[in-house]
Amino acid sequence: MTQSDQSMQELLIALQERAKELSCLYAVDEILNLSDASLDVTMRRLVDTLPLGWQYPTRCVARVKLDDRTYVSQGFDETAWSLTAPIVFEGEPIGSVAVFYTQQEPAADEGPFLTEERRLINAIAERIGHYVLQRRLRRMRQVGGDSQGFRTTAERFRVVLDFVRTTDRKLLVKLTRRMINHLGWNGVAGAEELLSEFVPQVTSVAGQENRPLARATLRDLAALAERTFLLAEDTLGEEEVLGCIRSWIREDRASFLYGALEKLDTSLTELAGALERFHAMELHVEELPSALRTGLSVALIRRFFSEDLAFIRAAKGVVRVEDFHDLAQRTVIPPDSHGKLGGKCAGLFLASRIVQEAAERFDVLRGTRAPRTWHVASDGLLHFIRYNDLEEVYDRKYRDIDQVRQDYPYLVQLCKASPFPPEMAQGLSAALDDFGENPIIVRSSSLLEDRVGSAFSGKYKSLFLANQGSKARRLTALQDAIAEVYASVFGPDPIEYRGERGLLDVHEEMGIMIQEVVGRRIGPYFLPSFSGVAYSRNEFRWSSRIRREDGLVRLVLGLGTRAVDRVSDDYPVLVAPGQPNLRVHTMPDETLRYSPRQIDVIDLQSESFTTIDIDEFLTRFGRSIPGVHRLVSRIEQGILRKPLGSSVDFGTDHHVVTFDGLISDTPFVARIRLLMDLLAERLGTPVDVEFAADGDDFYLLQCRAQGSGDESAPAEIPHGLPADDIVFTADRFVSNGRVPDLTHVVYVDENAYSALPDPKLMQRVADAVGRLNKVLPRHRFALVGPGRWGSRGDIRLGVGVTYSQISNTALLIEVARQKGGYVPDVSFGTHFFQDLVESGIRYLPLYPDTPGVVFSEAFFRRAPNALVDLLPQFGDLTHVLRVLDVERIAPGRVLRVLMNADLEQAVAFLAKSSG
Amino acid sequence: MNSGRPKPYNSFETAQEQFDAVATRLGLDTGTRELLRSPLREYSFAIPVRMDDGSVRVFRGFRVQHNDARGPCKGGIRFHPLETLDTVRALAMWMTWKCAVVDIPLGGGKGGIICDPHNLSLAEQERLCRGFVRQVVRNVGPTLDVPAPDVMTSGQHMLWMLDEFEAIRGEHLPGFITGKPVGLGGSLGRTEATGYGVVFTIRETLRELGLRAEDTRASVQGFGNVAQYAIELLMQLGGTVTCVSCWDQKDQVAYSYRRRSGVDLAELRSITDRFGGIDSKRARELGYEVLDGDAWLEQEVEILIPAALENQIHIDNVDRIAPTVRLIAEGANGPTGPRADAVIRERGIFMIPDLLANSGGVTCSYFEQVQSNMNYYWSRDEVLGKLDLKMTSAFRAVAELAQRENLYMRDAAYVIAVTRVAQASRDRGWV
Question: In whole numbers, what is the pLDDT of chain B averaged over residues?
Fold first, then answer.
């Protein structure tokens, strides 16, 4: 076959696709394209195939008359209920094709036949005519040795254009117009003339005259089309012309989706329908022009997720139209919904697309996926409220917060007792069919949640469901959980939180994400091998060698709840992906002390989320955890050892969860590092990501902008503060963090402390600090002291407090003074680093001897000391230990500490008290 | 400098002052005093280490050999970010007395590296350990100076050091270092050694006081290794432990658990996490009274065993010690403050000082070295039997001296230690 033939063939295939709704045309084409078969064989096959394209195929028969020959299908019987089309060759009828119903059928558009069926039979007749043409051409070629598939270009295009004209006149208009424009843009002589025929009276440039332009009428379309395409073929070449037509036809096919998207009143249900139709067309989306692809993506992003321009910018290059089809397939949509899917859903959707795309380039990302997830559109909440006449909840947010708090339990019960609208119940039922008996988690995905600047992390509920037993039971449990999440929108904490951030007046809708829990059954429990949360920026560095960009991962065994939330009496394992070898704990006893002690699982028997002792779990079920030898280390005689092979004896040996093998012997760190870098780069912001692994694959569970949490947002550093108000500044190892306004500062004078003649006195300072920790306002005071807080052994290096003696402070400051030409290391809080992290105590080192840094001697050393008022028994320590009551030093003011890691700057100054 | 201010605390000067007091009591000659109040040898050196990122950092290391008149020096190697030579000197001197009081043929030494291991990867720590050995290889060894784990160093660090030492010397010399795991030159019985050692001295004290173990009750602060094994052996001897106190990580306070009829060790161990923390809720369910953290001190018992932290008995709480208490055995280092110590002495309570009471640990290290040197390893019972012998005779010697010279046990222990070292130095003709 020549190249031209091939192009023609491709074009014809594209055209046939255009008429795909006429399902049997494929079969007809196949038969007609078998060029080896004789005319008789081809026609006999054809008549047997034709009935399949009609509405009642079992009662349909067909007949083709061609020249003097007649072909009929099996059981042919000529009846009155027929549809006939002439077969035309070079303008002359040479036969006909007809179908008959063997019995009377219900009346439709044309007798018992549909309009579509009329179009079908016409197209088939046309195809047969074309087939006859091709046969004759082939014969001529064989005779004359002509190397061209068709005799002339005119002939070729006539075939194409005739086909389009008979099947879709509108399309012909579009194709002709676009080709004229295309010719014009390419500066082809003659294009203007064609244009003036297409749109007569184009004599002046539109808009330059003050009267409306006359409306153009199109005269002989077929002739114009033919001339246009002949001119195009002459000037642009056949390949380009065919390419253009193919591309425009595809565009045309996708246009209905665009239309649906751009119409503001298209409901989500209709949109889902349009996506389904688009999907059924089996279009190769990548062959659509990129502008169209982008346009569709943007419109879909806007409808499903967000109007936020930054989000759209990040998403439009990555998400594909098909992705939305999959998404819509798994979305529970209330009737007439115009809702969205919420921030959590958007973040995960985008992140998993970015990773999926990158996995084609980076092996280490293979096997990274998102768990199966269903969604409930955000206005499901409104629908639920309307259906149950619960409208009185709307104004709760404007009521007194104490009242909100008081009747919240009642509201929860009310929501749980309210039935779901049938459409939603049906959708949820489909979701459960999809999940089977896999445990699921119901998470909120609010439109306010996870937006930059307002992380509602943990403010709304997330509920685990064991999802076991009969369908009816599971459905009840799922509805119960969703009702509870819905109620949480009107709970006191989110309302208070929104109030503080000026978000009260925003109309609160709430999307729901129903996600399968990653993991497997182990004993009576269900859990992932490990889970965690990763941050692009490390706000809790434990060594001066760790940079902020090295990131942070919090890892736990089992469900990730213990890594995401801070539990003060348990510890996740921390690792900085950029410096995986610098671990927080270096001694086996430290590692042991700060290792995870408990594990969160789903208990399939009691059907509940539960926390169990890790030792007990490992002894009984440790061996069943996939890859457990990478997750634990054996502790024996004070030495931690990774298991040698893959067998681990939990019966006799004592193990501790360290993730040492995972970190040093697997691509885990490389994967998480690349993942975080990639997401931060593509999303244009540092991110935090929740993940879990089930032993086979690595799952992304959530992805959002880091620093959206109130704790770790960089504070704006004010300029032009009065010098007298500044208490200290810092410019090294600053982390991001919001410190509550401070009412007190406890200051241990470095000189006086190191000059204490007896370590017992130093111990007494620690004791006094411990007492202050109990009497000062909780989380409203800072501890400022020399060198290393929590020093053990040699307490000259820093005050030898234990964690319980500082547990109520808001900010721990270590002062490093130059000594004999060098500045000693500070501890970075390592003595109780993880306790600080878990309880949200901020840490800051100060270097007062650095040029340009402020350290107000007047404040620290000369302001009145309140120690004796608070703890008279420690009167002997007043020269070492100073308690600075800000209110007393500067009435009506507080000490405000602002930290900004991006600028590597922190400042503490006396500010007007806002409370 | 700062003439108007009090002088900053210096642990070496404090150690020297303590020594001076004993030397004066003993009437030591000037030469002996001079020799013993300062280390014999001090090594200070640079350790260049290739870091993971390819750069080189130079660390400062020390090894101090205070006195080896009685045998090779023995003492730990510390990793500490603000390590000073003076601290190492003080600790080396302390080791000399500690080995001498329990009468093992070893001298005192100590070493350190200025570093914060939190800033170092494991690979970097390994290179640092090997670098340390390369610098002191000529001056240490099974017959010269034997290191051990200490602050921020572990058995793993010791194995790296041993391996480097053996590689340089071209032979197996497991006696070079102690604190090794069993199977790689370590000794059985090490876990129990300190706790058992405490009870060996208690047993001997009861004999002195004419008490039967069966007639005594004890209250213990702490529930770590030392405390648990002390309780275990005490109960085997027939004693009753009525109260145990320990830290509660969850509530961030200490609690005392009391059962007047006697605690059940196995039962308590079954509700204890691996950090020595007892589950307070389950303890209550098992019928223990859960009292405040200090309550262990005021129990009506005959024996108090502070086996947790420093400075737990101080002037503010010493009066709460019940009149029934006959003896205190210091399982921890420095649990009694100096003013409280004076009160205890005044009240005539028998004190087994830390130097003696908790020397089971260093004795077992000595046994480890002995076994390593002959490459033959004893059974656990053999180790603990030998420990009993050593501790018992060490106790007898101190107690006899105390009685003969009418000394407080703490002073007697110090006096006997200094005497033994001074004697050995003199016998060798050094002074």
Answer: 93
